[in-house]
Each structure stands twice: as C-alpha cells, then as structure tokens.
Design brief:
33% helix, single chain
C-alpha cells in the first residue's frame, strides 16, 4: 500500500513509474506526450494519465498538486546526448531547467530527474551549477550521481545521470542506493526466451553471450528505427551473438541452424531493460513493433528506479541515520569560469576572469570555454579601452516563459518529438 504520492512528468512507457510504485509511491498524476506510451500507461494502471505537452498548463495544472511527496521525471535527453549536438538550453526539447522551476510551483518534498550520461560532461558543468543554484534558492539540497543499471540488477550497462533534491528537513536521511550488481548476462537473461520456439542453438548461444548488454537505444520519431543503435553498439551486440540490424517478430525456431545469429524480439529487449524478471515487474507494452521497441528503449529500467525510489522514500520517512548535510558528497565539479562570471559585479576581462577562476587557460582555451557557456547563457561582450570584457546575463533555457522561442519550435516540430 503506497503511503507516499508522486507526480511524474515525461512518464514514457512506465519504467520509472513501475519502479516508483514498487518503492511505495502512489501516482497522483502521470503526464506524457507520446500517444503510444500513454496507451501503455493506461493499459497497465488506472492512474490519472494526461496526454500532451507537459509544459502546457492546458494539459495539467501544477497548482493542483502543491505539496506532493515526489516530483519525478525523465525529461528529454537529446539536448545532452553524446550522440547528438549537445545543444543544451538552446534545444527546443530541453525541459530540465523548466522542471527545476516547476519544483518552485509544486513544492514537492523531493525531486527526482534522470537523464543521459552526457549531462555529466564538462560541457554542461555551468548548466548543472545553474540547476543547483536554483534549487538552493527554492529551498532544496541537491546532489547528482552517475548510476549504471548493471549495478542494480539489470543486465545492461545503461549509465544515467540522476538528480535528487530534497527539502532540508528530509535531506539528512537521504543516501544513494547501495550497489547490487547483476549476476545475469545477456545469455542467462534470454536463454529461455531464445529456446521458447524450439531453437536447438539456444544453450550454445547463451554460453557465448556471457556479458551484459550495451545501452539499449530507443531513438525518437525523428531519429532511430527498430534496431539496436549506432555502429559501435551494433558491433558490441555482434560480439554477444546478436544481429542488431533490426528487431525480430518471434524468437528463432527449430528450423534455424545451431550457429544462427538471432535478432532480439521486443520482449527480449524489455527483459534486458529489467521488466519481467519477477511477477511484480510484469508490464504490457502496447503498439506496433517499432513503437514498442522505442518505448522500451527510452525507458528508465524499473529496478534502478525502484532502488532510487526506496532511498527517497526512506529519507521522506526519516528511516536510518541522519547525516550532517555538510558531509554529503557532491560528485559534480563546479565550472569555475561560470562561478567567476556569476559572482562578478562588473564586466571582467579575459585576464581578470582567468585569475579569479584560478584556471590555467590560454586565449584559445578561454574562447572555447566561453563558447560552451554561450550555448546556455547570454554573455554580454564589449570593448573597453582596447580590452574585451564579459558579463553574464540570462540563462537561455526554457523555464516557463510565455514568450520563449521553445513554443514556436515545439509547435513546428511536434510530430517529430517523442
């Protein structure tokens, strides 16, 4: 019986949803843009599921959920993806900063946001610092952690960069979940499914597939079909004895040779994502094959979500031993150049910024770092008696502004966004 409530934004097909439910959270609301994922959520649970743009108050009214225990979501990852252009705040799909501002409206006891590993890279250090600064302004302690699904019972690498924020009265009880590495390999996880249609090579194949899977890549309506990812991922799958060029309709049959190299079915990919390992992890994915694969591949593995959810629930219920907030580790390095700009009362020259930041940067490296910052922030540049000065102005990201260009871009690209 759930004793805590959650509002989940960008809920997808329900990987995080199921994990949070198993951790003791009841859904007050789930919001999702993709038609097929909405159908999947409604197929599995009788929650209040809203279909539409999560940033549009015609879809839902945040003021109706003030004080919910947990605000959670897997906001779109393309703005930070290593495989993408890493546009960050200037990507029309970026909702991370908006979700932080939403925290100020909803005032949950805790916040959980997950995204791709790319957000942990130096390119986004100022963006991360901006997020932490805003959460502090809103009255929350926050921390980031890079988690791998394989450390929480899932036979897949799948690194995800996770943000947890809590009010100061609950934060001392929070600790990141302890690792419990999977004992499964791709072979042991899928042996029975590979043999289900009578293929005589299933045992031989399973013995060869003796490692965990590379990260499942779901793609989007704009990019990515029903295959197992880019070239490097396909090569890794090949080493595991899997044909990654597509998704099969059925497992291999008795007519296939013992040394056949099979494709995975959508149900097999779902198993690699952590669904179906136990009865409590059963979940129906609706739609056609490509849609099913995309929903599965974009999901947050339920066992990982459950582990984090339990840690958050324990903190909200004040279970365990409280810690001094000053002793809680912050793994994320601050962007010292951004901090120098942010703290300056007047415009500063390159020489002054380098000195204040304590960084060893030549002019070329300085310009490169400033170009990074200029992707996410408005930086005013002026000539001052022969020197160029710099001053940090506004954050470029969408945080809920009615006149932000995100609205026009979203409307234009709506059919391509998932």
């Amino acid at each position: 019986m759930a004793n805590l409530s959650t509002v989940e934004i960008c809920a997808g097909a329900g990987g995080q949803s199921l994990g949070l439910e198993l951790a003791g959270f009841g859904h007050a609301l789930a919001v999702e843009l993709d038609d097929n994922a909405v159908n999947t959520l409604r197929e599995n649970r009788d929650w209040d599921v809203r279909h539409g743009d999560v940033a549009d108050e015609r879809t839902w009214n945040p003021n109706e959920y003030v004080g919910v225990d947990l605000l959670a979501g897997g906001v779109p990852c393309p703005p930070f993806s290593i495989a993408g252009k890493q546009l960050g705040a200037t990507d029309e799909r970026d909702l991370f900063a908006w979700a932080v501002e939403l925290t100020g409206k909803v005032q949950p006891r805790a916040l959980l946001l997950e995204n791709v590993r790319g957000l942990s890279m130096p390119r986004f250090s100022a963006y991360r610092q901006h997020v932490k600064d805003r959460l502090r302004d809103l009255g929350y302690w926050s921390d980031w952690q890079l988690l791998h699904a394989s450390d929480y019972g899932v036979p897949q690498l799948r690194p995800r960069f996770v943000l947890v924020a809590m009010r100061h009265e609950d934060a001392p009880w929070f600790e990141w979940p302890k690792k419990a590495p999977t004992k499964d390999t791709v072979g042991t996880a899928l042996r029975a499914m590979m043999a289900s249609e009578g293929w005589h090579g299933a045992n031989y194949w399973a013995e060869k597939a003796k490692d965990i899977a590379p990260t499942i890549v779901g793609g989007s309506k704009k990019h990515g079909g029903a295959d197992l990812g880019p070239t490097r991922a396909k090569a890794a799958w090949r080493l595991l004895g899997v044909d990654a060029m597509g998704i099969a309709d059925t497992p291999p049959s008795a007519s296939h040779p013992v040394d056949f190299i099979p494709k995975l079915t959508a149900e097999m990919v779902k198993r690699i994502q952590g669904w179906g390992t136990e009865p409590e992890y059963e979940w129906i994915i609706t739609g056609r094959k490509t849609s099913k694969y995309r929903q599965i591949g974009n999901a947050f593995p339920p066992p990982v979500a459950r582990s984090i959810g339990v840690s958050i629930a324990n903190a909200l219920n004040h279970k365990g031993e409280a810690k001094d907030l000053a002793d809680i580790r912050d793994e994320v390095l601050h962007d010292r150049l951004y901090l120098a700009l942010r703290s300056a009362a007047v415009p500063l020259t390159e020489k002054e910024l380098v000195k204040i930041s304590g960084l060893e940067l030549d002019s070329r490296a300085f310009e490169h770092r400033m170009a990074w910052l200029a992707r996410d922030f408005v930086i005013e540049e002026k000539d001052h008696y022969g020197d160029r000065t710099y001053r940090l102005l506004n954050f470029k990201g969408f945080v809920g502004q009615e006149d932000h260009e995100r609205h026009a871009l979203f409307a234009e690209l709506r059919s391509q966004i998932s």
